[in-house]
Amino acid sequence: MEAARSSAATPQPAGQQADPAVQTAQADPLAQKDLQLAHLRHSLRPGQQQLADWRSGPLAVSAVPGSGKSTGMAIAAALLLAERYCHPERLDFSADQQLILVTFTRAAATNLKARVRYYLRQLAIPPSGFAVYTLHGLALNIATRHSEASGLALDQMTLITPNQSHRLIRACVEQWVTSQPRLYQTLLEGQQFDGEETERLRRQSVLRTEVLPNLALTAIHEAKSSGLQPADLLHISETVVRRVNQSAEGEVADYGVLAIAAGLYEHYRHLKRQRNFLDYDDMILAALRVLSDPAIRKIWQSQVYAVFEDEAQDSSPLQSTLLEILATQPDLTAQLNLVRVGDPNQAINSTFTPADPIFFRRFCERCQHQGRLAEMNQAGRSAPIIMEAANFLVDWVNRSYPLAEAPFRPQKILPVSGEEFTSINPPPEAAGLEIHQPPDIYQTVNRIAQRTLALLTHYPQAAAAVLVRENKQGQFVENLLQHPERYAIPVNLAAQGITIYNVGRRDRQSSIPAEMLTLLRFMDRPHSPDYLKAALATLAQRQLITRQDFNRFSSQPEQFLYPSPLDSPPDTGRTARRYCASLLRAKLELPQYQLIPFLALTLQYDQTELATADKLADRVAQQTAFEPSLSAAIATLDEIVASERFEPVETDDLESRYTRPRQLTIITMHKAKGLDWDFVFLPFLHEALIPGRLWVPPQARFLGDFNLADVARAQIRATTHHDPAIPDVQQAWQRADQLKIAEEFRLLYVAMTRAKRLLWLAAAKQAPFSWNKPENLEEKPICPAIAALARRFPAALMP
Hints:
The protein contains 34 helices and 18 strands. By secondary structure, it is of the alpha/beta class. Helix 11 (197-225) packs parallel to helix 32 (708-720) and helix 22 packs antiparallel against helix 29. The two termini are 49 Å apart.
């Protein structure tokens, strides 16, 4: 682009014919701007150009990993806004309309907004006429502008992210048990029951603390995201039970899973209204209630020119409906100005969220019939051998697992081609693909350590990552790398200046509520030996005081906190006492709502942690508004720590923190989506995990060989997919198993495509049955896809 500007302004040598386009651009500033726009468009790859050429109507963009879909969307938005600014007569884009860009996470929205503003700045176009939201942020914006229509009064409501142990879920389970004694008794008896009292008590515990809370959480989330009410679930359940009883003449038992879910859902709604709680699904539903009013809907539609959606494969049905309503032009033609960009092969959230890639696939199919499907299939991220391995995985899985819905959309990743893109794909490191089968998981980590040291010593500006399927695997890798001498690993990465960064440990931001709770408990009861010791341990963990034997201090709290001249603590304890004294003084001098921010500063939190602490303080202040006391704050924090997933605040430098040079990042495959590293290690690739199978815990098998929550999810999805016959329990369980298999292979695909120059795969011959006890090793079969890759790329097999 800079070259285009300079060439347009450079005088031509005597006797040489000047380019007419350049001469025109020199004479006309608007023509010069058009030349800049043309150069920017020309810098895009074919699929990106189709996105940049969009001006109206629906468009589906199916993008492969590393194809630059976010960059393409940002440039497409900038070009559209530039054309509106320079040639308003070409677009039906009125002055009071905006281009809406929507993505999945706050960090992605921040990044997308920064990119659009960057390209507009390069084009000297005012950064206006667009807005970037997360899906929930957009819904909340609509709902809060029309609070009467939405029914949301945010100043009186508390946003929650409940999990299986949340008090609201527990309460709705208890209410359902009380209100439905016969259904509960049916569950209690299960497949067979001899009436023994100990077994009865055991089953009661399993139902009340595991099975029913899990069913409530899953079914309510799925139903709300699909626009279904409790009455709808009850009707579906009655249809299924009636069909099963007729076809099997009463021989096949059916618990009426969705009838149970409907009752739990009804109690959940009632309790949530009583306690003024709000969950994320409520935001979408509230926005749709607002837009159901024709007058309000027309106002919003008249303010939106088009909607660009990124990560469209992760949308739920109601989220897609919301975007389609906003993207519909409020005239007689009802034109849909909606651009959806995504990769159905990177849909990795559908087994634990309502996201379902089938809806984006169907949108792609509809657009393909209209000639409005663009494919971004050129990717410059990876070396050719890595892309070849990923393409082989797609073809092999679709052939080997003929499921009802193909696990992958058949699309290949291609290297970037064209004269202007010469050598954009990085060269491979060595062969670029390595497949290992070490004797055991300890030798797996040993090989990772040695290979990492060699790579990051030779390439000091490079970054590497270990991608694991479970957080427990990440903890195992970190433990061995941090303490190599204990496990006979000859390489000490930390001693060689290589940072070991475990994202799972760092992102367990529940540590912030837990740390606040620990210190507030001490401030409330400083003479408790347990609370004093816990507070000192927290200060030591934050490296504010020296680690030492805190028992000698906590055994006599008064003497430690208020020493006489004869009882002065040792030098190592004076700093600890000074911190404790400042905490107790803060309790006397500061108002209660300022204690959490004060503690965050005392613990020397970084930017992200301070923002999370502020969010936590607001949450506690909201829930203790009618009882602003320290004991109430402690009770609230205790509930959050015990039963809720508290979402941290994400900052703009999140991605760079994971991909620093000379750092080995340990991260789960799910968390790695959207990131890339020069060298990627994928250990522990065993069949038990990828693809794995759905599994029923032994304690819940009295109900049968299925999980009520997964059955409910499959039946609700069959309804939203408009299947002619809703599956019964066994059929739903089979569908859920197929969904898991497909998603696990897509997760492996995502992990493989994070690598730029080296993809390192390993499946040890011996691995643990459960990662809760990694020392208990046994022979484990390799992931079948890795075995197929080894046959396809025999040169990648390492001794």
